[in-house]
Write a structure and sequence with these properties.
Layout lengths: L1 H18 L5 E7 L19 E7 L2 E7 L8 E8 L3 E10 L12 E8 L5 E7 L7 E9 L8
Parallel strand pairs: 1-8
Antiparallel strand pairs: 1-5, 2-3, 2-6, 4-5, 6-7
């Protein structure tokens, strides 16, 4: 009887870990092709107006999160930092825990950013690493549109 009670208590303790999303954030630095900061309009609690961003896991391609349909705490393009304190940096910020399907190490996430004014897009993938810590890619910037016109 004691074993059954211990097993039930253990199950009750573990169930929330299995049933609920595990928060994990992916942060990616963005630059233009000349290395400069993209033009991004900062609005309170909104992603950048100049860009739309979509992301999905390869294992569930029908489940797309987007800056057009989801809140800024789920997916966003924004500027972090402030002159004199930390160099302003354009980033993609995606909360993996907001996908309906629970993410797993080894999952492939597809990300596409589109510059609204030009229609130019840039896509890339990320293999979700082991662990639950922040996935920080500030030393490996992604070059995004608008691209410099070739002469």
């Amino acid at each position: 009887m004691k074993k059954l009670i211990y097993c039930l208590l253990l199950l009750v303790a573990i169930l929330p870990l299995i049933a609920f999303p595990i928060p994990r954030v992916y942060v990616q630095k963005l630059v233009l092709d000349d290395g400069s900061l993209p033009q991004i309009t900062q609005e309170d609690k909104k992603s950048a107006n100049e860009y739309s961003l979509r992301a999905w896991m390869e294992a569930a391609p029908e489940e797309v999160i987007s800056t057009e349909t989801h809140p800024i705490n789920t997916i966003a393009v924004k500027i972090v930092g402030k002159e004199g304190v930390m160099e302003p940096t354009a980033i993609v910020n995606i909360q993996l825990g907001n996908f309906k399907r629970l993410w797993q190490a080894g999952d492939i996430m597809h990300i596409v950013i589109t510059h609204k004014a030009t229609g130019e897009s840039k896509g890339w993938t990320l293999e979700v690493p082991e662990g639950t810590h922040l996935i920080k890619k500030l030393d490996e910037p992604i070059v995004i549109p608008p691209y410099t016109k070739k002469k």
